[in-house]
C-alpha cells in the first residue's frame, strides 16, 4: 500500500476538529470483509472537503459511521461530543447524511412529508416543523414543490429535495455520497452552485474530479479502507503518481 | 424513463376535489354498500344511483361521462356473472345441453344477472371517481383517520412510493430481455417454455434482491433522520362545515335511494 | 391495466353482503395477529422492509412470460412473499398489494376486499409457507419441488375459496363454477409454480443467507408445517369430491342453512316489497346472520390463540 | 429552438448509411409526451459516434427505436433492411443494445447464463452457444468470470458483462446508453479502451464530454426530440454557443 504519500503531501488541518474528529476507526462487515483499517480525520467549521478514491475504497462505509448507522471500533466526535449509543438521536440531528440515490432517501409520497420527517421525529411542534420545512425548501430553491409527489420529480429535482430533507434538521455537518452521479451537465452545475452557497461544513464523496477541483479547497483520498492523502486539492491534483496509484484521474 | 401511468388522480379545481378525503372515502363505501343492499330488479333505484354518480362527475368537473368511459375496461370479471344465469330458479326462458348437462336460464336469472352487472358497474365507477378526485397520499391519510392500523397504511404508503421506482426497473428488465430476444434465419427462436419461465423467475429474483437491499438503504435513511420505530405525521386535514354538510346530504340521498328501491 | 388479469379479484356485488362481512372478519382477525407477530420479529425495521417488498410483489406481477397462443403467465406472489419474508410478513405485504389494486385500479371491489385478501393474500401465504416450512431440512431439489407444489396449491386454494364464496352468495352453481375455476387455475398455478421455483432458486444461489438459519424466513414456528399440510390435504381431498358431486355438497349446504344465511340476508332485510322493519323472515335472517358472524369470529380468535401459545414455545 | 446550428456545423456523413439509416422518425409516448420530432441519422461501417444532449432530449427514446422496442412513425433501416414488425427478431440479432444500468441488463444468476441468453434465444446449437459466449467474454476480457454470480460483481465488471451479453449475438451495430455513468476513473478508463478496440460500428449516448472528446470522431447533439447538430467532435466542442444553448459543457 503506497501510504508513503501521506507524508509527502499531507497537511494536517489547522484546527482541533471542532466539527468532526474520527480517530483510528476500524470496521469489518459481518461477512468478514475489512472495510476500514484505522481511519483518522478532522473537519473544522466551514470546511468543505472532498472524499475521493476508487470503487470499494470504503468511502460510503466511513460515511455511514459518521451518523451512527454502522458502529466500528474507534472514536468519533461530532461537534466535540463523543458518539455513543445514548446520544445517537442528538448526533443524528447534527449530521445530515444524503445517500447517493435520492430514491433511497425520499420514501414519503409527498415532498412536504419527506422534508418534515426529520423535524417531526425530533419532536418539534407543528409550527416549528412547518418553519423548518419552509426554510429547507427555500435553501434548495424548491419551495414551489412542497405538495408535489416525489415520484414525479426529475433526478436533479429529487437530489435537491434529498438535500432539503437533511437541511430541515439544521445539521452542523453535511455528508453527501456521490451527489453528482447521473446528473446532466445543467443539473450538475446547479448542484455545484447550491453546495457552494450552503454555509455548512461538508464532506462529499465523489468520482467527479472536475467538481472536486472547482468546489472543494481540500481533498481526502481513500483506498482500501485507509486515508492515503489529505491535503489541498491543488496539491493532490498535481501529484500524478498519487492519482495513478489510486485509480484517479486529473479532470 | 418515467412511469407515471399509475396515477389515477385528475388535477382539477372543483368542489369535490377540495372535500376532505375522509368524506369522499366514506361516501364511496356507503354508496357501494347501498348498491349491495338494493334488491334485484330495483331499476328505478339503480337509475337514481346512476344519477347520483353523474352529478358527482359533473361536480368534479371531470365531464359527465368520465367514470363511464373509464369503467368499461374495469369489468373483465363480468364473465363469472354469466354463471348466475344458470343458477337462479324461476320460470324457464331458455335451455340447452352441453356435454349432456342441462342448463336452464330463467326469467329471474336474467333479472338477477342484469342487476348484478349494473350494481357492480356503478360500484366500480364510484371507486374510479374516488381516486380521480383524491390524491393517493390523501386517501392514505383518510384511511388512517378511519382507524385502519397505522402499520398497514404505512406499508401502503411505501408501496405507492416505491411502486414507481420498481415498475421502472421492471420495464427496463423487460426491455433488456426483449432487446436480446433475437432470431436467426433458419433457426427456431424462443427456447422452451421451461427456459422462458426460468428466465422470468430469474428476473423476479433479481428484482427481489434489489428491492430487499433497497429496503435496507431506506431504513438507513429513516434512522439517520431520527426514526426509532414510531412514525409521526402531521395531520394535514381538517373537517370543515362544508365537509359535514356534504357527508350528511349524501347519506340522506343514499337513504332515500334505499327507500325507493323498496317501494 | 398493465398486467394481465387473473379471474380472481372479485368485484363489488359478486358476493353477498353476509359473505363479504364474514370475509372481512376473518381477514381482520388474522391481520391483527400478523401485525403483532411482525412487530415482535422484525422490530423497527419492518415498515421499510414490508413496504418495499409490497412494491416488489406488485412490480413482479408485471413480469410476464409468453405461454401459449398469445396468453402470458405471471406471478401472484403469495407463496413467494411468505417463503422469503415469513408467513406473517407475507400476509401483510399481500394485503397491501391487494388493497392498492382495489383502491387504485378497481381491480377487486372495496366491500368484498376482505374476501379478496383472504383468498389471494392470507391463504396463499399460509399454504405456501406451511408446505415449505415442512421441508426445511431437506435437500435443495426436494425443497424446490415442494416450493413448486406449494405455489401451485396456493393458487388452487385461492380459486377454490373464491368459487365457494361466489356459490355461497348464491351467484353460481357449484357444478359450474368449481370445475371452471379449478380448470383455469390449474394452468395459472403451473405458471406460478415455475416462476416461484426459479425466483427462489435464484435467491438461494445469490443470497443464501436470506433463506438460511436465522433469517426472517426461518423464524416462524414449525407448526406452520401442520397448517400447510392440513390445508393441502383438505384441498386435495375436497376439490375432486366437490367437483365429482357438487349437487351433493349443495344439498348439504342448503340443509344446514348456509346458503340461506350467506346469500339471502341482504336481499331480505326488507323482504319482497312488504312494509319493512318487522316481518318474521327479516328478524330470523338477521339473527341467523349475527350468530353466523359471531361463530366465525370466535373460531378465528380461538385458532389465533392456539397459534400464539404454540409458537411462543421454541 | 436553435436549429440554425444544424447548417452552420453540419457535415453530412460521406456514406449512404449502410449500417443504420433513420429517416424522419416521430414518436409520442402513450401519455402524450412528444419525445421525437423528426429525427434523421445515418451511420456507416466503422463509424463511432457520440449522442449527447440534456436530460430528456430523447436520446434513450431514439435508441429504443433502433432495435424495435419502441415503434414510431418514420423509417429505420439496419444494414440496408427496413425494420418492420416481421423481421424484428432478426433485426435484434444485428443491433446490440446496452442499457445504462447494467443491473437492468443482467437478469440471470450467473454470468454464463446471461451471456448465453441471446444465442440460446436465437436457437443456436449448444456448441455454437458455448463458442459465442467464450468469444464474447474474451472480447471484454472477462473469461475468468464465466461462473461468477452477476449480482456480486463491481459496477465496472457488470458493465463489461453487459456489453458481452450483446457481443455474443454478433451484432453489426452496438448501441450503448450512457456506458460510463457511475464508474470510477479506473473502470471508466478501461471501458474507454475496450470501446476503442471493438471493431464494430457504435452509437453511444453519454453526458461524459471528456470521453466524447477522447473516443469519438463524430458527435450528434440532440435536444427536445430533434437532432440539432451532427458534425466532427472537434467542431462541436469548439462551438461554445451550441454547447451553452443545449446545456452541455466543454470537458
Ligand atoms: N453490506 C456489505 N457487506 C459486505 N461487504 C460490503 C458491504 N458493503 C460494502 N462492502 C464492501 O466494503 C468495501 C467498501 O465499500 P464502500 O461501499 O464503502 O466503498 P465506496 O468507497 O463507497 O465505493 P463506491 O465508490 O463504489 O461507492 C467494498 O469492498 C465493498 O465490497
Ligand atoms: N415511458 C415514458 N412515458 C412518457 N414519457 C416518457 C417516457 N420515457 C421518457 N419519457 C419522456 O420523453 C422524453 C425523452 O426521454 P429520454 O429518456 O429519451 O431522454 P434522454 O435524452 O435519454 O435523457 P437522459 O439523459 O436523462 O437519459 C423526456 O421528456 C421524458 O420525460
Ligand atoms: Mg459508495
Ligand atoms: Mg437516457
Summarize the structure in words.
- With 251 residues, chain A is α/β, with parallel strands linked by helices.
- Chain A has helices at 4-9, 59-66, 88-94, 102-105, 111-121, 126-139, 155-167, 185-197, 209-215, 233-238, 240-245; strands at 20-28, 34-43, 48-52, 73-78, 81-82, 95-98, 173-177, 201-205, 218-223, 226-232.
- Chain A has eleven helices and ten strands.
- A six-stranded mixed β-sheet of chain A has the order 6-7-8-3-9-10, with helices on both faces. Chain A has a four-stranded antiparallel β-sheet with strand order 2-1-4-5, covered by helices on one side.
- In chain A, α5 crosses α6, α5 (111-121) runs parallel beside α7 and α6 crosses α7 (155-167).
- Chain A is globular.
- The model of chain A is unreliable at 1-10 (pLDDT under 50).
- Chain B folds into two domains: 9-135 and 235-263, no CATH class; 148-183 and 190-230, no CATH class.
- Chain B is 65% helix and 5% strand.
- Chain B has ten helices and two strands.
- Chain B has a two-stranded antiparallel ribbon with strand order 1-2.
- In chain B, β1 (92-98) and β2 (101-106) form a beta hairpin.
- In chain B, α2 runs antiparallel to α6 (107-133), α2 runs parallel beside α10 and α3 (43-59) runs antiparallel to α10 (241-262).
- Chain B is flat.
- Chain C has 314 residues and is mainly α.
- Chain C has helices spanning 17-42, 46-60, 78-85, 87-105, 113-134, 140-168, 174-206, 224-244, 246-256, 258-268, 280-312, and strands at 65-66, 72-73.
- In chain C, α2 (46-60) crosses α4.
- The N and C termini of chain C lie far apart (45 Å).
- Residues 1-5, 265-289 and 306-314 of chain C have low confidence and may be disordered.
- At the B-C interface, α2, α5, α6, α8 and α9 of B face α1, α2, β1, α4 and α7 of C.
- Bound molecules: adenosine-5'-triphosphate (ATP) (2 copies) and magnesium ion (MG) (2 copies).
- One adenosine-5'-triphosphate sits between chains D (29, 31, 33, 35, 53, 55-61) and B (1-3).
- Residues 59-60, 177 of chain A line the site of one magnesium ion.
